[in-house]
Amino acid sequence: MGKKDPRVDAYIEKAQPFARPILKSIRKAVHAGCPDVEETLKWSVPAFDHKGILCGMAAFKAHVTFGFWKSQLMDLPSTGDGMGQFGQVKSLDDLPTEKELIALVKRAAALNDQGVRVPRPKTAPKPPLETPASFSTALRKNKKAQKRFDDFSPSHKREYIEWITEAKQEATRDRRIAAAVEWIAEGKPRNWKYM
Questions:
Q1: Quick one: how far is CA 134 from the chain centroid?
Q2: What is the residue range of 51's domain?
Q3: pTM beyond 0.70, yes or no
């Protein structure tokens, strides 16, 4: 049995008057298409879960948006503007019929039932940065810092190198190198203050 969230009721009531019937219609279709759906708020807007995120809707000043999480796998068009698969919905006429929406919800729920995931594009690893000579020299003078730096992950090394090379003035670069060597000797990553 599905689960309704009172926060979604409150969200709909706070929406602009034109948006309320649209949001209610979408909500009704989602529950009809997937009776086990659970409502929640994600990113401060209504979302529907069924073995993972199914779809979501949001209301703005002049339009509503509605979209499926796995729309790519459902061959649904993308508006390319972050407005879900149906663009800026300003009236019920901008949405598919209730019957068509229910069919789409059933397709989305079936994907979640099967555990299908949206393929994520793989990104090539970033090439290692060249360590500035002045930084290498400072590390060699402190054996403990050199050992720790060599043991750091590529991302930790990159953070230090970028921080040092971004300095516009030589005096700033020298201060950063001194601080970096001290922190590295203590085994601290570049942004240790925020951890």
A1: 38
A2: 6-113
A3: no
pLDDT digits (tens, 9 = 90+) for 65-112: 998 998 888 877 666 566 678 888 999 998 999 999 999 999 999 999
Last residue of a domain, one of 78, 113, 148: 113
The three state secondary structure string of 13-75 is HHCCCCHHHHHHHHHHHHHHHCCCCEEEEECCEEEEECCCEEEEEEECCCCEEEEECCHHHHC
Number of C-beta neighbours around residue 74 at 10 A: 14
Q: Is residue 20 part of a domain?
A: yes
Assigned domain for 125 exists: no
Give yes or no: residues 100 and 25 share one domain: yes
Q: How many Cα neighbours within 13 Å face the side chain of 125?
A: 7
Domain final position from 80, 113, 146: 113
